[in-house]
Amino acid sequence: MNKPIAEELSKNQRDISVAEFFERNRHLLGFDNKRKALLTVVKEAVDNSLDACEEAKQLPEIIIQIVEMGNDRYRVIIEDNGPGIVKKQIPNIFAKLLYGSKFHTMKQARGQQGIGISAAVLYAQLTTGRPAKIWSKIGANQPAHYYELHIDTQTNNPEIMREEEVTWKKTTGVKIELDIDATYQKGDQSVDSYLKQTAIANPHATFIYTNPKAEQFVFARATDKLPKEPTAIKPHPYGVELGIMLKMLKNTECRTLQSFLTQEFSRVGPQTAKDICEGAGLVPSMKPDELQLPHVEKLIEGIKKTKIVAPSTDCISPIGEELLEKGMRKEISAEFYTAVSRSPEVYKGIPFVVEVAMAYGGEQPGDQPVHILRFANRVPLLYQQGACASTKAIVQTNWRPYGLSQSQGALPVGPLTVIISLVSVWPPFTSEAKEAVAHYPEILKETKLALQEAGRRLGSYVNKKRRIADQQERISIFENYIPEVANALSDLSGVNKEKIEESMKKMLEKNKEYIQAHKEAHKVEKVEKKSKEEQVALTGFEDDNG
User: Fold this and answer.
1) CA 243, CA 240: separation in Å to the nearest integer?
2) How far from chain centre, in Å, is Cα 477?
3) Domains of the chain by range and CATH?
4) What is the 3 state secondary structure string of 433-482?
5) What are the tens digits of pLDDT across the range 302-325?
6) Global pTM?
7) What is the DSSP letter of 289?
């Protein structure tokens, strides 16, 4: 008797390793072409270095080298001055996907999924077959550990090809070297552009970059002040979905529903927990493991009915208006700068802050759409601009009152760079490659409000500049016709022509002085505004006359 077809088919079914999955779907991680692959490898290593340095309260100094080896093959070397990595963790961090320390913590970080740097190692292994080389040192009196690693894609475990103690002059830090198939090109989506933008969003860091043409660029830090360190918080009740709530109830060690609500969530005190239970029609003394699906559905409804304080924002660390403007001034040549940092808001129970900065004029083209720089947790987003919430917010904003031309449903046109930065515990990316922010209504609203606030400042500057330019043009035209006008007036009045010309020139000089005074007043106004902002930042209050 023939066996059922289902039994034959079942023989081919087996577990899929996460490393095997991404081996076949590396485009999901940003490795879909050679140019983008080079950028992704550098980005993942630099992100890790920045996070490590900040956690160790060390001002980052990161060295990036890209060496051309011929035949579309490049060697990427990233070295930092962070705290280093302990020996036993090195293989897992660099050669095991979905391994990390940040996925389960509710605080802002660049990397969270434990995929980035190990995916870069996987890409190097797939395209050149060469192992990743890693150096790590955790103290001046400690030995440096050197590893050569591959990933066993069937088991998603590290393969140690070589391991030894070596001499390394650095006090502490990590260095990684990868050989990859790639293409190097300059432009908006290049490593060069990524590092320049990273320097803007991370003004506390220094980057020393040597490109494949052996040209070295130093992006020096603009401040010696480290960002405020985010602190982990517990999830907020408003953002928890039913399935997650079931899981939390199953795993909690709390003995009552009331203690579960107060200990497993942020912003829930004993009285709020009682209010939630009352709204859900549940007894506060119920045991969490006794709650069935109908009870949990009621609990979710009780949470929605209860007014709960917004989550703490200690878990996020915005760049800040002053530092964002400093970073922008350092890397972008312009004639007008402004920055806006919004108050913290919440989407799905997750805190976030939107910051916007603008640089107008200078060397930027005036007949092209505005240049957009997008960031999420201080990391530049260079791809999928059209799919990003930041771009949608810019398109939906009316830019005409701010002195820029704009067609319906299009980006505004003018000599302007717009920076939009989102910081959050969990930025809602549209894909694993983290290239665009999803269109959450709360994020779109905050972005548009920030754009409008910065836009009003821009409009004030542009309109004043245009008024002065118009006055100067009128004066220039009048100046050209002074001899003819003086001659005509002399014929009509009989007054000496030279005397009339002299009077008219004196009048023009007064007008020029008036325009110059307006220009100087505008400059002083900007300086005074900056000084006032610095005073408030340093002291926390304005002077008596402020």
Assistant:
1) 8
2) 48
3) 18-219 (3.30.565.10), 237-305 (1.10.8.50), 321-460 (3.30.230.10), 481-539 (no CATH)
4) CCCCECCCHHHHHHHHHHHHHHHHHHHHHHHHHHHHHHHHHHHHHHHHCH
5) 999 999 888 777 888 899 999 999
6) 0.75
7) G
